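Troubleshooting log. The previous structure file for this entry was overwritten by mistake, so regenerating from the original sequence record. Sequence copied from the archived sheet and checked twice against the printout by T.R.
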Amino acid sequence: MAKTPSEYALHLIMEGGHPQTVRMRTSKEVNDLIQQIFFVQAQESSDFLHIPLQAEGEYLCIRPSRIQAVHVEPLFSSSLERY
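Regenerated output below.
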């Protein structure tokens, strides 16, 4: 039986090579964000996309056209550090 990830780490590579890591709890959140980045909003759009970060009330504002790549990494509770 396959294990289910506890959360997902999205590694965003932005224009200029700046990396940003965002964690999300469900695959639906990941799919919705990827849809917003690559399909829903036009690549030339100057609208900002608001991406929630791990801290409460903190988020990243970025133009979808400035995101060059997204790497999705499933994280399992057995591999996560305990706080």
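Residues 27-40 form the longest helix (14 residues). Archived copy saved in two places this time.
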